[in-house]
């Protein structure tokens, strides 16, 4: 389950027209959501409030061994109109599962010049800013985030952590993201050992910058063999280098995912390769139904022959349609199609994963009255004497 | 001086060393680059032994040793370690960073663990080692400096300079920790295991035999009439008594070991029997005189107290035993003459022994006897409260001695130097035998000093009280109940007692028949059980005459012992009759020994 502050930050990105999925860092987001989900440990209590559209606060209290907590505050220059109440919030937005990518949208500036935006949408483009801070207690770790939409295609993100245990008692990460629709680039710099990084993602096929093709998108002929009309093929790479350590790293990746116009069930395939370390990772995720998604991932290292297979699933539980009126409908209007349940009308979700090393994780998240409850447990089947690894319960409430 | 090592048997048994190295290498938190346990794969000590040079030997005895060595090693030993390391520097980078500011790479941080084999060779050591060995505490080996001079680390990653340098640095750091912290701990644990199994086999009886052997072998000047078998007869006579009077203090002083208790028991036993054997007790200072006030009075009142120095010097070791106790007398002596403790050379001995002989040669007076009784009373611990009270009293008396000694000793030495020297001659031998123990205790038991200091402070606090009380002898007199007990003993067996007193009074220089008395007295000691309080109190008036007339140390010791005995019986009787009797030590005169007020 997303933290309330992450939920608000996500809402900020969407409100400012930013597409967080069009990034190399989000290439395997579906597999990560289905296989690497967060399991609560110990007891946790989260209280959050979006007291005004611009201001949010959150308090957490946890007891995983020791009692700790955090206070966080968030300010957004853009009024966020999102559902904050835990009784009304859409569980699908709070719990990340299979990520069904939408057709790419053209960045605003490529459609219209910036000066014309005012007239067309009645809204002046503002350099919206988000400030966020969190103080962890009793560790006295301070986290700060600065988000700024520099231009419609550019986002600056600065993460800071202040902690006495860190070298130089803190670290700053600056990330500049450019999203041009067809491709996106990211530049990052971390003060910690002066790490420099570059990430890029390129989407083959449809180019949202030429809206002429958009009108007859379903009728156009493929321009090259990998120009799928029902799906999207993306390729990306990342490079890191630290001049202090004289070390670095890189990886490349491919992804094919189906788009909403695809008639069959949606699926996503990714393949990432770390040529320096010889690491290959492939994942395959399908959304077998409106309430079920399955995923598998296979990791292999060509140098050390280490391998790992992880399987995962997520299962949503819909609010059942009222059965007491079904007989009436069957009598009066038998020709009516059965009502498709609304996707937002979910009450609970079950996530599970299992690796070939015998590690099992299960997470159950549901809404109990006005509270959001998340129960998780991790098991290690290989350890006979201690199968149950950890167990946790988190309760969230937000208004 | 250098050592010749027989190196070949050491090479054979490296399995245990390998196991210990493995556990010690995995104990400390490993750097994030090492993702698996470190296994010691191969250990070869090589063919070249290290060179060891003795720089200083601080202490040398059969069961202990302390010295400083210079160690130098330039041999061909090598060590092979196996572990798994994370080869991706980005992975280790990410694992140490907070997730909030992590760059979150997609796959660039994926791990690659590689089995790594590290060979440590060309080890060059050069350092100063302090080695302290004692049978009780095992072997303590400490490097005074960082012994690691250089080391060659060859690994699978020699072709990558960054990894090689990192490994070299990390391993050197770990090895330094190993030498400075882990190796002393390992050796200490190992030696403790070895000596513990040895020490367990020596039971109390074995220890007794050992001390007896030691007694026979020792060249302590003993009186001609001294019978080495006295301890056994004593034990037979007083079978009703607990064998170890220090059983109760063990609860209080939990640090007392079984061996020390045995020694203290032997000590008290030999004191009772006039045995001159002084068991070696660490952290203890042997004092010849029971208290100081007697000597003050001796110097002031009695002009010629030097008539019997030779006999007294022979007896002094016994008397010293009577005053010694690891608990309070040592501390009192520390307050008396700190220079004696801090300066362990033999040159300081004559003066010390002189004071000993002076004290022992003094004629007893009433306050003296009373104070001495307090010291003796130390060994009779009933409960924690009385212990503390008696401790304080005995310390204060000792301290008072130091105050008075500063002026009196010099004055006395000028008046009668010849006799003082005479007395020193026989005493020096037992004093020297005690000496090394004190040194050793000073060297390797630093935990004793705080207690001493505390006692010293307590002595200071009680000093004023005692001095003020000592001003009026009349105030002190009521609190000397041993007067009750001894005359009663005289009543029981007047013949031997009278003879002793006569000889002690008339012929002070040679008190030969004195040695026979304790055994007899011990044989008769169960008798006073029947004694009633009335009979004792009736005899109070009779005793002071005896006390003033006799004044011998031997009588003192004997009387104290008997007084102890009788008081114990009386206390037992009291307990038997009920709890209506109050504990007298807490109320009334606070410095009175609890046992004798009845």
Describe the fold and architecture.
Chain A: Belongs to the MDM10 family. Chain A: It is a multi-pass membrane protein. The complex is a heterodimer of chains A (399) and B (598). Chain A is mainly beta and 399 residues long. Chain A has helices spanning 4-15, 29-35, 91-94, 108-111, 114-121, 211-215, 326-332; strands at residues 42-52, 55-64, 66-76, 129-137, 141-151, 154-162, 170-179, 183-190, 195-203, 231-242, 247-258, 267-274, 279-289, 292-301, 307-318, 346-355, 359-368, 371-380, 388-398. In chain A, 12% of the residues lie in helices and 49% in strands. The model of chain A is unreliable at 110-122 (pLDDT under 50). Chain B has two domains: 8-201, Bactericidal permeability-increasing protein, domain 1 (Super Roll); 206-577, no CATH class. Chain B is built from 24 helices and seven strands. The chains are: A mainly beta (399), B alpha+beta (598). The interface between A and B is large, with 48 and 23 residues.
Quote the distance from N terminus to C terminus of chain B. 66 Å
Alpha-beta content class of chain B: alpha+beta
Summed up, the helix count of chain A is 7
Counted beta strands of chain A: 19
Poorly predicted ranges of chain A: 110-122
Mean pLDDT of chain B: 59
Main sheet of chain A?
Answer: 19 strands, mixed, barrel
Envelope shape of chain A: globular
Q: Describe the biggest sheet of chain B?
A: 7 strands, antiparallel
**Structural class of the helix and strand makeup of chain A?**
mainly beta
**SSE sequence of chain A, one letter per element:** HHEEEHHHEEEEEEHEEEEEEHEEEE
Identify the biggest protein-protein contact and residues per side: A-B, 48 and 23 residues
- In terms of DSSP E residues, the strand content of chain B is 5-15%
The separation of the N and C termini of chain A measures 16 Å
Oligomer: heterodimer
Q: What does the radius of gyration of chain B come to?
A: 32 Å
Brief synopsis:
With 399 residues, chain A is mainly beta. Chain A has helices spanning 4-15, 29-35, 91-94, 108-111, 114-121, 211-215, 326-332, and strands at residues 42-52, 55-64, 66-76, 129-137, 141-151, 154-162, 170-179, 183-190, 195-203, 231-242, 247-258, 267-274, 279-289, 292-301, 307-318, 346-355, 359-368, 371-380, 388-398. The radius of gyration of chain A is 23 Å and the shape is globular.
């Amino acid at each position: 389950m997303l933290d309330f502050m992450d939920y608000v930050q996500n809402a900020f990105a969407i409100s400012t027209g930013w597409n967080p999925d069009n990034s190399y860092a989000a290439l395997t987001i579906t597999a990560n959501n289905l296989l690497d989900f967060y399991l609560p440990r110990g007891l946790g209590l989260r209280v959050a409030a979006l007291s005004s559209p611009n201001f949010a606060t959150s308090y957490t209290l946890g007891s995983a061994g020791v009692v700790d907590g955090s206070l966080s505050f968030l300010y957004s220059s853009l009024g966020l109109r999102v559902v904050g109440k835990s009784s009304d919030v859409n569980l699908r937005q709070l719990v990340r599962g299979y990520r069904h990518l939408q057709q790419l949208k053209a960045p605003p500036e490529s459609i219209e010049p910036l000066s014309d935006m005012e007239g067309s949408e009645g809204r002046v483009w503002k350099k919206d800013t988000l400030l966020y801070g969190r103080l962890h207690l009793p560790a006295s770790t301070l986290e700060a985030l600065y988000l700024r939409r520099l231009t419609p295609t550019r986002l600056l993100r600065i993460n800071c952590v202040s902690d006495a245990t860190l070298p130089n008692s803190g670290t700053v990460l600056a990330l500049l993201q450019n999203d041009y629709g067809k491709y996106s680039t990211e530049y990052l710099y971390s003060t910690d050992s002066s790490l420099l990084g570059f990430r890029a993602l390129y989407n083959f096929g449809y180019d949202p910058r030429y809206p002429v093709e958009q009108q007859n998108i379903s009728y156009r002929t493929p321009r090259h063999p990998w120009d799928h009309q029902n799906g999207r093929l993306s390729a990306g790479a990342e490079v890191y280098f630290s001049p202090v350590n004289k070390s670095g790293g890189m990886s490349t990746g491919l992804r094919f995912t189906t788009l909403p116009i695809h008639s069959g069930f949606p699926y996503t395939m990714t393949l990432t390769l770390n040529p320096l370390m010889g690491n290959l990772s492939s994942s395959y995720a399908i959304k077998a139904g409106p309430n079920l998604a399955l995923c598998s991932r296979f990791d292999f290292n060509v140098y050390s022959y280490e391998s790992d297979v992880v399987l995962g699933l997520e299962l949503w539980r819909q609010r059942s349609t009222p059965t007491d009126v079904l007989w009436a409908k069957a009598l009066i209007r038998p020709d009516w199609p059965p009502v498709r349940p609304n996707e937002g009308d979910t009450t609970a979700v079950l996530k599970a994963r299992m690796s070939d090393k015998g590690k099992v994780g299960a997470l159950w998240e549901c809404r109990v009255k006005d509270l959001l409850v998340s129960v998780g447990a991790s098991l290690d089947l290989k350890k006979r004497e201690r199968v149950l690894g950890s167990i946790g319960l988190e309760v969230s409430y937000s208004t | 001086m250098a050592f010749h090592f027989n190196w070949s048997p050491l090479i054979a048994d490296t399995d245990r060393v390998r196991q210990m190295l493995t556990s010690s290498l995995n104990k400390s938190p490993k750097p994030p680059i090492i993702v698996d346990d470190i296994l010691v794969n191969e250990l070869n000590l090589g063919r070249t032994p290290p060179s060891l040079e003795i720089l200083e030997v601080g202490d040398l005895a059969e069961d202990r040793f302390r010295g400083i060595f210079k160690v130098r090693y330039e041999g061909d030993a090598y060590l092979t370690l196996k572990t798994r390391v994370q080869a991706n520097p980005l992975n280790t980078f990410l694992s140490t960073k907070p997730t909030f500011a992590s760059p979150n790479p997609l796959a660039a941080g994926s791990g690659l663990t590689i089995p790594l084999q590290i060979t440590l060779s060309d080890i060059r050591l050069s350092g100063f080692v302090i080695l302290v060995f004692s049978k009780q505490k095992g072997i303590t080996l400490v490097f005074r400096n960082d012994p690691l001079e250089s080391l060659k680390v060859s690994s699978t990653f020699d072709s990558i300079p960054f990894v090689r340098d990192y490994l070299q640095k990390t391993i050197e750091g770990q090895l330094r920790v190993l030498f400075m912290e882990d190796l002393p701990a390992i050796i200490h644990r190992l030696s403790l295991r070895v000596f513990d199994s040895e020490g367990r086999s020596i039971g109390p009886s074995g220890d007794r035999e050992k001390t007896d052997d030691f007694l026979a072998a020792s060249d302590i000047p003993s009186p001609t009439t001294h019978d080495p078998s006295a301890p056994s007869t004593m034990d037979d006579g007083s079978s009703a008594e607990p064998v170890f009077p220090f059983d109760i203090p063990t609860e209080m002083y939990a640090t007392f070991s079984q061996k020390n208790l045995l020694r203290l028991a032997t000590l008290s036993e030999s004191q009772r029997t006039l045995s001159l054997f002084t068991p070696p007790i660490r952290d203890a200072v042997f004092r010849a005189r029971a208290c100081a006030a007697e000597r003050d009075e001796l110097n002031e009142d009695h002009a010629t107290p030097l008539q019997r120095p030779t006999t007294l010097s022979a007896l002094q070791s016994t008397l010293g035993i009577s005053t010694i106790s690891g608990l309070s007398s040592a501390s009192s002596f520390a307050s008396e003459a700190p220079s004696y403790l801090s300066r362990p050379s033999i040159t300081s001995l004559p003066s010390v022994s002189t004071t000993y002989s002076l004290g022992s040669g003094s004629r007893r007076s009433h306050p003296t006897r009373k104070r001495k009784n307090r010291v003796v009373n130390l060994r009779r611990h009933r409960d924690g409260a009385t212990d503390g009270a008696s401790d304080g009293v005995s310390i204060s008396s000792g301290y008072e001695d130091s105050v008075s000694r500063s002026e009196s000793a010099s004055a006395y030495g000028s008046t009668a130097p010849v006799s003082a020297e005479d007395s020193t001659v026989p005493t020096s031998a037992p004093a020297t035998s005690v000496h090394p123990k004190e040194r050793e205790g000073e060297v390797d038991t630093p935990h004793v000093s705080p207690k001493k200091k505390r006692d010293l402070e307590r002595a200071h606090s009680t000093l004023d009280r005692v001095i003020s009380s000592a001003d009026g002898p009349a105030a002190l007199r009521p609190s000397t109940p041993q007067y009750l007990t001894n005359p009663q003993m005289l009543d029981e067996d007047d013949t031997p007692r009278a003879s002793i007193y006569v000889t002690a009074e008339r012929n002070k220089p040679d008190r030969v028949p004195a040695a026979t008395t304790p055994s007899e007295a011990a044989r008769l000691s169960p008798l006073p059980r029947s004694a009633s309080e009335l009979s004792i109190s009736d005899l109070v008036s009779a005793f002071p005459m005896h006390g003033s007339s006799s004044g011998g140390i031997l009588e003192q010791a004997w009387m104290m012992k008997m007084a102890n005995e009788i008081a114990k019986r009386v206390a037992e009787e009291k307990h038997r009759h009920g709890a209506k009797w109050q504990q007298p030590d807490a109320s009334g005169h606070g410095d009175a020994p609890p046992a004798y007020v009845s």
